[in-house]
Every structure is written in structure tokens, then in C-alpha cells.
Amino acid sequence: MQGQLTKLSAHEFQIYTRMMSKFKATGTGSAFDQAFDDVLINLCRVEEDDHILKNVPHILWFPHLTKSFAGFLRFMRQYDLKKYIRNIVVHTDKEYQLRHVSTADAPLARAVHEIWDQVFSNLDPIRVVVAAPPSSLSALLDAHMLSSDTWAFDMKMHYIEFSQKDPHRTAHRNHGCRPWDNALVHRKPWTHLGYNEGSSIAAYSTYEYHLKQSPKMLYLTLLRLAKEVQDCCNITSFSFIGVFPFSTNMNTVIRALQKIPMLREIQVQLAPGPENDLLDTPKKLGRAQASDLWLEWNGCYSGMAGLLGTQELSDGARFVSKDCGETEVAKEVEEYIESLQERGQGWRKDGNEVWIRDSSLDREVTPDENLGDVGSALHQLMLAAAHELL
User: Fold this and answer.
1) Residue 144 C-alpha from the chain's centroid
2) Per-domain boundaries in the chain
């Protein structure tokens, strides 16, 4: 900057002046001296005419809406299109790299607040999808990742979806229902939350894979709903997509779901769909063993069966498994639902992949019949033991 003072923008010159003031305050004679390493230069936004800053090799960014959004809003107002825009997708492929810098927390909060303010003050969507790398999604959700193992999972993109079945739930817009703060999770009385974390396959090739933790934004978001939102305007449906997630990671999500008693529909897909040739492509599998993949898959469904068996789901509640496209897999899923029926809980099959809670099918289970559950319990214990031995 010092060699190009005449070329600095007004904003860049302000930054240069602040840097020089701090530099002089250190009493050192050179910016290359060790004493200068501890001088904090405040984070700042690169503005449109900051040509020198734009050419800096390493620029770390805060989430922000691009200028095309302002142009879109002008177009929308010109043709009175607001009432037709019901769905919003917020997307970035950039990774947020300042999450370990404590001084970045306050500017990040302001940047994310500004994004959602711009969206919801100009638009009235009933559905919002955010697609971003895990580090960026955690920033946009005002949540932590709670994991140092994200490198192992190689998840390029996570997706979260919030939606409303009834966009006119105005009765719930009071502070008794939810905080109504700056976080996306509290911007509307959402009725549905969906999440797609992509594939966990890469982590199966790492040493002691079962100890690895995937990013926990979904878990923290569900906990936030459970703690901060009243039942009257909490979510009633939940969907999750993952490719062979670890059962330990899935169980954290299940524990959070247990705290949301008003759920009426749970939908999962935990194996590759018919469009995915993962299991037939050795290069994509890497060092992962198919037996390990299905062991974890079974552990996840065992946890889901436990959730369905303990959650007080009302008549008409639905469980949907999108893994039932293949005959053998469908049989496995059906066995887990049958285990609930064997314990006296009524579930009625509706098509190939849907089960509906039906209390008219409930029945008392005698002690002799309960002995039949021992084999299932032993099977689960064997799975758990095998998991520990890996």
C-alpha cells in the first residue's frame, strides 16, 4: 500500500492509516519484526473500488449476498412479483475459514443477520433451502460444527430445508411461542425441517473410523427447537438423507428428535438411491468395506425403531423409508417395523415405503411373547459388540 498511496481508494486509505497507527504504537522499526505479529488488524469488508485489496493473494470472507440479489429485488418490485415467490434457495460453494478466529464472531453474526434481514424484509417465502459447505452452513445457521473430523468425511455440501404448510400462522407470531431472533430457525413458525448431509463413505477409509464425528449443525438446530420453541409452533415433520451415516452420529440426531414430541412424520434415506452407483464402483468405495457400511446402516435403523417405539406418536403419524426401492433392503426395514408390532405397537403398512401409526392395532403383549424379543435384543447386542471390536 505504501508504494501505491495515490492509487488507494478512500476505504483502503483509511485501513492504511489505521495499520500505520498500530505499527507505530509497537515501537518496532519493521513490520517484519516479531513484535508486529501480535498487532491486531481489524477485519474489514472489501469494497467495490478496493482494487489493491482485491488483489491480495489470501482474502478470507464473511457470508454476504451478491449484488445480483439487489438487481433481483428491483426486478421483483418493478413487476410486483413478491406474492409469487414462495421458495428461496441460498447457495454458496465457498468455505467459511474464520470460525477459529474469536475476533471474527461478532462481525460474522452481523453479516448473517444482514443476510436474513434482507431476505425476509423483502420476500415472504414459505420454504427456504440453504446449500453450503459445512463450515459455511454452520455460520448461516448460527450453530457450531462440534467436530474436528470434517476432513475425514469430505462432505462438499450440506443442505437444510425449512418450510411451512400453513403460511398464515399469524397467531404464533408472539414471544411466547419462540424467540423470533435473528437466526434462520426462528424467522418463521416452520412446520418442517429437512436435512441432507451427503455421503459418509470417505470416513470409512480412515483409521478407527467409528470414532469420527460428522458436523453437528442438525443436532444443534433440533435442540434449539426443542428448548426455545413452544409445541404450538414447532416442527411436525422431519426428513433426513445421508449415505451410510455412522450409527453413533445418527443416534445424536435421534436423541434430539426425542425432545420434539409433536412430530407427525419422520422420513429417512440412509443408503444410496437407484441413481447412485456407489456400491458398484470400487474407486468410490476406497478402503471401505461393504460389511461395515451395512453394519452402520442397521445400527441407524435400530435407533430409528427405538425412536418410533418410545415416542408417543398419535394416530396417523407416518414413518417413511426411502431405502425400500430394493427388495432385500425393504425386507430389512420391514423387520424393524415388525419388531414394534411384536411388542404390541400398531403400525399399518401403506404402500412399499410408508408405515402409519394405528392404535386400533395395539395389543397387550404377554410375558411369553416378550421372550421372542430376546433374539432381537441379542442380535442388537452382537451388532454393538462387533462395532466396538472394529
Assistant:
1) 10
2) 1-59, 79-389
